[in-house]
Design a protein that fits this description.
With 170 residues, the protein is of the alpha+beta class. The chain is built from four helices and six strands.
């Protein structure tokens, strides 16, 4: 069998990559990279927090102030029950809480003292009158809220296992 070889005549067009080829290629590459970095954050947005750090800081500040103002001297995280009950009763309206803690007038706030029972059930701590030891607006869950929880002890043996201060701002 005889092999037949053909030669392809390229003529005089034996050039390599030119400056124009490089410019077009790098432009397409940069546009692709720019589009990817521009579009990628919008893909991750649904997984981001809808709350700013300022609201979270406010809940921390409110919880720390509440504990500091109602603290029993010399006992960390131990709150005086009668003083706490009096404070929450006097600042039960949202505007009173906003004024006391320096929050803007559009901020909603809820403070709840939670009791944990032996079975692990968490219920609001009860006042002597039988009402919940809470202040502010009841959180309904329609909007995102920042929440801070602190473990506390309430004087008078009012906590079964332990108690929490739960502060929500939205």
């Amino acid at each position: 069998m005889k092999s037949v070889g053909k030669t392809i005549d390229c003529g005089q067009d034996e050039r390599a990559q030119t400056t124009q080829d490089f410019a077009i290629g790098i432009s397409i590459f940069l546009l692709t990279v720019g589009f990817t970095f521009g579009f990628l954050p919008s893909l991750l947005t649904p997984f981001g927090s809808p709350l700013g750090d300022d609201i979270t800081a406010k809940t921390d500040r409110v919880a720390a102030t509440l504990i500091a103002e109602n603290n029993v001297d010399g006992e960390p995280r131990t709150l005086n029950y009668s003083q706490l009950e009096s404070f929450l009763a006097s600042t039960n309206s949202e505007s009173a809480l906003q004024d006391h803690f320096g929050l803007r007038s559009t901020a909603d706030i809820n403070i709840t003292i939670v009791n944990v029972t032996d079975t692990g059930t968490r219920t609001p701590l009860q006042r002597a009158s039988g009402t919940n030891l809470t202040a502010g607006t009841t959180y309904e869950g329609q909007t995102p809220a920042a929440s801070t929880t602190r473990v506390i002890v309430v004087t008078g043996g009012r906590c079964d296992v332990q108690c929490f201060v739960v502060v929500k701002v939205w």
